[in-house]
């Protein structure tokens, strides 16, 4: 679920056309796990604190800017989840037909609700959330050529970021734990390998279309066990991935598609997510909107896929109250088509006053078969409550 809030911030005029703005949030998070953990090292509850300020400067009549977004989390139990990152440290200059961004940035590609196959520029910050929507900052040079025939984004990506994983004391982790201190790279340059990517995007007759290609170190590792079988070792292969993302509004229907073809991790494979969201506006003559969501998730690697979504369906609903507190609720069930494995997801949020927000998130795993990639999470049903103060 996308978080949106009118953030309290301050702005002031500075000499030489320089304008600055500070915003951001501080959040207190509580997680409760009702089932006993599979490992005695894991706890049934957890508290953590996070802080993400954002400092933005612009000058030259807004044509040049600098964005600085650090992030830090302090976790009660998991030393790996206590971490800091520079989400963004990005200089941008904008001209009539081109835009240049240099530094550490975040880029999002995708249209579907359940997963984002084409979103490959940034590494996933997996210790933040299982939904893979939290990302680490990526060093980049991004030139966007804005033309009537569409926008062409060119990316040079020096410096690879390894995926984060929960530590031995953390919940929502694999068993055995992932040893993130000893990764294996296919490239002899390891994390210094320079990746590249490009994406063309255009709106054609009400259809938003994106075509992309990435060449470099995969953000999604494969795993091998270490010598004594006590840990998984992440292996980062060199891959080439071509993707397409499409969405269109047709009356109350929103149709979506993401599809990729990837080589470099065994045989070339294809994966896609496609579906719809149908919105009922003004239910029973109220301000409430309900969106009904259906998606199909496919990966032709079948059980060898690196995700649990090789042949699955998502059924869900999005409730938007359209009130002064921006209250929202998203509920979904993901059902494996070839087994009894399913998961339930709920996300809800409500603003409190002008600068506070409360969010509730819950995930439940049901009938997870022992051969399923998510079996180690089968006792990690949890409820998470986050109280945030925006400034």
3D structure, described in words:
- The chain is mainly beta.
- It has strands spanning 10-14, 18-32, 45-59, 64-75, 83-94, 98-105, 138-147, 150-158, 177-178, 184-185, 194-204, 207-217, 222-225, 231-236, 238-250, 253-263, 269-280, 289-299, 311-320, 328-336, 342-352, 356-366, 382-390.
- The chain has an 18-stranded antiparallel beta barrel. Strands 9, 10, 13 and 14 form a four-stranded mixed sheet that branches.
- The protein starts with 9 loop residues before the first strand and ends with a strand.
- Residues 1-11 have low confidence and may be disordered.
Proportion of residues in β-strands: over 45%
The overall average pLDDT, rounded, is 94
Low-pLDDT parts are 1-11
N-to-C order of helices and strands: EEEEEEEEEEEEEEEEEEEEEEE
Main structural class: mainly beta
Distance from N terminus to C terminus (CA atoms, Å) equals: 21 Å
